[in-house]
Write a structure and sequence with these properties.
The chain is mainly α and about 200 residues long. It folds into 2 domains: about 120 residues, no CATH class; about 80 residues, Arc Repressor Mutant, subunit A (Orthogonal Bundle), CATH 1.10.10. Helices cover about 75% and strands about 0% of the residues. It is globular, with a radius of gyration of 18 Å. It holds the Pfam family Sigma70_r2. It comes from Streptomyces spongiae. This is Sigma-70 family RNA polymerase sigma factor.
């Protein structure tokens, strides 16, 4: 947790004061948008999910514990839940419903700005795709550490697991990725990404 977080108050204070909540939002919106942009490639969906994450903060502010990690790590835990819920919703609906439901109109400048973020985070999406074969628990730890750049402690806090459990899952994930990439005859761009997420680049 940095000095700015301590001075400006945490989530619990922010939800009680609109001015503090605006500061909290401005402090974290770019990090949250980057997190979402690594997981979706549509600007409307990215904008909606980012807004939903901050709405969820209003209900979850009481759960933030500074001793367990930074505000960013805590927000990533909320963001994972919101993104997972969206994926389940999309899986249940038809292509037509998915295309038109839940979207608000965006200005052209907003779309360009979000598309720029989506483009910038495309390597992160490719890295996440390389992790798709891992079991859910191991994939979640590796995503937060290798892609979202959290520490093991912060990843454990975001997932609500013990640090030792996070370390074991990280070790297993790296071992699985190492075995997969070692079996490839020629290195491709995707293979290079796997070397990054397994901690060797």
């Amino acid at each position: 947790m940095d000095g700015a977080e301590r001075l400006r108050g945490g989530p619990a204070e922010a939800v009680r004061d609109p001015r503090l909540f605006e500061e909290f939002y401005r402090r974290h919106v770019d990090a949250v948008m980057r997190f979402v942009a690594r997981r979706v490639d549509d600007p409307h969906t990215a904008a909606d999910l980012t807004a939903e994450i901050f709405v969820a903060v209003l209900d979850s502010a009481h759960s933030y514990r500074p001793g367990l990690g930074s505000e960013t790590a805590w927000l990533y835990g909320i963001a994972r839940n919101v993104v997972s819920s969206e994926r389940r919703r999309v899986a249940r609906e038809t292509e037509r419903d998915r295309r038109f439901s839940g979207r608000r109109l965006l200005e052209a400048d907003d779309i360009v700005r979000i598309e720029d973020k989506l483009d910038a985070e495309s390597p992160g999406r490719r890295a996440l795709a390389a992790l798709a074969k891992l079991p859910e628990g191991e994939r979640a730890v590796m995503e937060l550490i290798a892609v979202d750049q959290l520490t093991v402690t912060e990843a454990a806090a975001a997932l609500g697991i013990r640090q030792v459990t996070a370390r074991v899952r990280l070790h297993r994930a790296r071992k699985a990725l190492r075995e997969e990439t070692d079996s490839r005859a020629a290195e491709t761009p995707e293979a290079s990404l796997v070397y990054v997420v397994r901690g060797e680049a």
